[in-house]
């Protein structure tokens, strides 16, 4: 805490991992002797830089940009870029730390990193977004590269922003390489990347249910968020026979007890991606639904919960409400959406709980496959990629079971993901010696 003052999110993430790694390394002294966990709590490096851009009124604006390169022990740094006005070094450090374990869990050769800016994209014109992205990449370009660090999207950074940044990198470096993932299909992007995180979160839930002999079909589901991850989680839940009754954004929650079907989901996509409107507009078209301003969805009864908006969006009280209302499973689409108190509630109730570093790893896994395709200069088909995503999520589930099974057969997925993600990175670090 003395070394990282004022970084509560980073402390939270390290604590969540350390609680399982400390007992594990005590039983495996080679890791302890080499101080692997201690070394992993210090990022390889953090760069922070000024980003100046001009708004539509010709006024000069100044933002802060960052890239946290956490660990490249098992591959180039890899992790998204976030544009949100609440971005701080603490948030990016927690995300980069988590990313290292998550990327290891995928089985693909990727290290962990994260970046972003306190730039707020809400209400900005398309030209302003373009100017900001270009200014951001002008500086970032000197720190990344296809063999060094390969960023992707995250909150506030979707296909549009990745395209502006990729175009600027290409122009500055005079090279066409797979330096970013989440690119458009016309210039090196991968099929299934847009869908991958949301689909993966649902595949992981399916695997947890199947492991217990339960079925997805007929389950009532609460989803939070209405961005990239939430949209494709809703789509996959519906395809598997579940019924989604909520979506949300930072202004509040939509509760549609009739269920959000494909037509309603298409409308949500139109609202958020094209009109860049608020989710409250949903009830203008579907007046039978209810909009609950300023509230998150967790008081609404459901069988399964999918937090897909942002960090710390479920507190202990909300977790208790979910459990009391009969929720039997939580699969985290967002990164660290459950506060520590909420995780304690889920674990004490022994419901199925999939932590983000396992459940939402499908996005970065398909990003890894995008890097593979770029290196080979060819593209795989949609079916092939969906199949690979399904297999990777199944393998992550198996790894969690391997490292997370308690003596009584209960699976502690949090422990399984933490230890399962740690081992490969730790073995690589041991092999390199003290560096
Ligand atoms: P988007 O920007 O597409 O969507 C974010 C959604 O969350 C929006 O509905 C947004 O509402 C809501 N939201 C954001 N911040 C807050 C907040 N402070 N309070 C309440 N609601 C908020 O982002 P993504 O869907 O890509 O990301 C969502 C989560 O998933 C993040 O935690 C991200 O790190 C994680 N993730 C994403 C991956 C990906 O592939 N995209 C991969 C792995 C993890 P509003 O529009 O009002 O801001």
Task: Describe the model.
There is one protein chain. The chain is α/β, with parallel strands linked by helices. Among the domains are: 42-177, 3-Layer(aba) Sandwich (Rossmann fold); 194-350, Rossmann fold, CATH 3.40.50.720. 47% of the residues lie in helices and 15% in strands. It is built from 16 helices and twelve strands. It has helices at 8-27, 29-33, 36-40, 89-105, 126-140, 159-173, 193-211, 228-239, 262-274, 282-285, 316-324, 340-349, 356-359, 362-376, 382-404, 413-432, and strands at 45-54, 60-71, 77-83, 112-117, 149-152, 220-223, 243-249, 252-255, 290-293, 304-306, 329-331, 352-354. A seven-stranded mixed beta sheet has the order 9-8-7-6-10-11-12, sandwiched between helices. A five-stranded mixed beta sheet has the order 1-2-4-3-5, with helices on both faces. Strand 3 (77-83), helix 4 and strand 4 (112-117) form a beta-alpha-beta unit. Helix 7 packs across helix 8. It starts with 7 loop residues before the first helix and ends with a helix. Bound molecules: NADPH dihydro-nicotinamide-adenine-dinucleotide phosphate (NDP). NADPH dihydro-nicotinamide-adenine-dinucleotide phosphate binds next to helix 8. NADPH dihydro-nicotinamide-adenine-dinucleotide phosphate is lined by residues 153-156, 158, 197, 225-230, 249-251, 308-310, 333-335, 360, 363.
């Amino acid at each position: 805490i003395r070394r990282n003052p004022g970084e509560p999110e980073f402390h939270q993430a390290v604590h969540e991992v350390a609680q399982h790694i400390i007992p594990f390394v005590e039983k495996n002294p080679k890791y302890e002797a080499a101080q692997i966990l201690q070394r992993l709590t210090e990022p390889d490096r953090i760069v922070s830089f000024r980003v100046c851009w001009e708004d539509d009124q010709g006024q000069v604006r100044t933002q802060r940009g960052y890239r946290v390169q956490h660990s490249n022990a098992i591959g180039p740094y890899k992790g998204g870029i976030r544009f949100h006005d609440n971005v701080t070094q603490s948030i990016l450090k927690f995300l980069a730390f988590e990313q290292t374990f998550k990327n290891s869990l995928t089985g693909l050769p990727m290290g962990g990193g994260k970046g972003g800016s306190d730039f707020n994209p809400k209400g900005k014109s398309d030209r302003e977004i373009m100017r900001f992205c270009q200014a951001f990449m002008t500086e970032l370009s000197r720190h990344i590269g296809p063999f060094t660090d390969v960023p992707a999207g995250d909150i506030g950074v979707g296909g549009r922003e990745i395209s502006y940044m990729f175009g600027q990198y290409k122009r500055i470096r005079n090279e066409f390489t797979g330096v970013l993932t989440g690119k458009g299909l016309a210039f090196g992007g991968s099929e299934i990347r847009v869908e991958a995180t949301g689909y993966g979160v649902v595949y992981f839930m399916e695997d947890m249910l199947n492991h217990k002999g339960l079925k997805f079909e007929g389950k009532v589901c609460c989803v939070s968020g209405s961005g990239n991850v939430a949209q494709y989680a809703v789509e996959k839940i519906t395809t598997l026979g579940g019924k989604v009754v909520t979506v949300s954004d930072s202004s509040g929650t939509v509760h549609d007890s009739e269920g959000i079907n494909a037509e309603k989901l298409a409308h949500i996509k139109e609202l958020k991606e094209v009109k860049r409107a608020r989710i409250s507009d949903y009830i203008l078209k579907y007046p039978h639904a209810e909009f609950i301003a300023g509230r998150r969805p967790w008081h609404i009864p459901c069988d399964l919960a999918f937090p897909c908006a942002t960090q710390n969006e479920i507190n202990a009280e909300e977790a208790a409400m979910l459990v009391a209302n009969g929720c039997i499973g939580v699969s985290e689409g967002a990164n660290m959406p459950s506060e520590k108190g909420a995780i304690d509630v889920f674990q004490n109730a022994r419901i199925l709980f999939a932590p983000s570093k396992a459940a939402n790893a499908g996005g970065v896994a398909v990003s890894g496959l995008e890097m593979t395709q770029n290196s080979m200069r060819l593209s795989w088909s949609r079916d092939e990629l969906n199949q690979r995503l399904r297999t990777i999520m199944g393998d992550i589930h198996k790894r969690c079971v391997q490292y997370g099974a308690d003596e009584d057969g209960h699976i502690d997925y949090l422990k399984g993901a933490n230890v399962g993600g740690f081992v490969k990175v730790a073995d690589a670090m041991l092999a390199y010696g003290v560096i």
